[in-house]
Amino acid sequence: MDSGSEYTIVVGVDGSPSSKAAFHWAVQHAKLTDGVVRAVIAWQYPAFARWEGGILIPEDFELPARQILADTIETTVDRFDRRLVVRQDVVHDHSVTALLDAARNADLLVLGSHRGRGLLRIRCGSVSRRCARRSQCSVVLIRG
User: 63: which of 57, 70, 88, 104 is 20 to 30 A away, CA to CA?
Assistant: First the structure.
């Protein structure tokens, strides 16, 4: 929990429908609680079976992540709502690590839960499951 006066809601964003639903829920919750939204997207270099040369440029992977985050925010947040504060974090790390680090001093962690089929509908994705197990704050899972 945040020891300061700011109610902080961390939300994971990856561009999926469930993460967009989670971001929307976090924004609505922030409006009700006068909270601050901290939107987090993580990126990593892709795993290649073989790499035959060339240089991996971080910007080639970071910029698409920034764009996904910006698009998610733009389609959800009313830019004229001056009371709402949305902070953006683009992190080079594994999703679980980035989200748990961001949520360490937060009041709430909000994540999308991918829908499965059949019995998988009641399960959440691996990132959501690991974050829910290890988070130091309350976790809300939103189905997309």
Answer: 104
Which stretches does DSSP call E strand in 2-144? 8-12, 36-43, 85-92, 108-113, 138-143
pLDDT digits (tens, 9 = 90+) for 37-95: 999 999 998 776 456 667 777 888 899 999 999 999 999 998 778 889 999 999 999 99
What is the percent of the chain where pLDDT is above 70?
85
94: domain range? Answer: 8-45+56-138
Q: Which single residue is written with the structure tokens 């967009």?
A: 20
In a domain, 51, yes or no: no
How far is residue 126's CA from residue 140's CA, in Å, rounded to a whole number?
A: 15
Domain total of the chain: 1
SS (H, E, C) 49-84: CCCCCCCCCHHHHHHHHHHHHHHHHHHHCCCCCCCC
**DSSP label of 119:** G
The pTM for the full model equals 0.87
Alpha carbons 88 and 69: distance in angstroms, whole number:
8
φ/ψ (deg, to 5) at 27: -65, -45
